[in-house]
């Protein structure tokens, strides 16, 4: 399976990938200081864990809580793809339509470390312009119209 096919097949959960932490040699987004209450921190964790089955949430919850404390946001560094993020030739994207491949092509270009302002934090430009909120949103485990409508309705996706 090519790297693009693996990326498009969903989050790797069995086994979970190692957490590489923050990459060396690339700029990182400034630490955010959201000033969350304990209840708001719990809400942030619940929102982050919604992408994962219950059997891995126990392992991921402390890791995500630490990211929230250290960086003021849960980026899910563990799920940052090991492959080089860049715009691959459009015919290499495993998509049913050319329009879908074009969207993936654009996202991958925006996350290229040579293009993105803070690539590992998904920030393309301007300090806050993120492609996605975290790495789980990049990977299509929940890419269905039904799931999109649900997440849009509760205000956690655009």
Automatic annotation (TrEMBL):
GO molecular function: urocanate hydratase activity
Organism lineage: Eukaryota, Metazoa, Chordata, Craniata, Vertebrata
Provenance organism: Leptonychotes weddellii
Family matches, as PANTHER family: UROCANATE HYDRATASE (PTHR12216:SF3)
Protein name per Swiss-Prot or TrEMBL: Urocanate hydratase-like isoform X2
Domain Urocanase N-terminal: 85-137
Signal sequence residues: none
Cited Pfam families: Urocanase_N (PF17391)
A Gene Ontology biological process term: L-histidine catabolic process
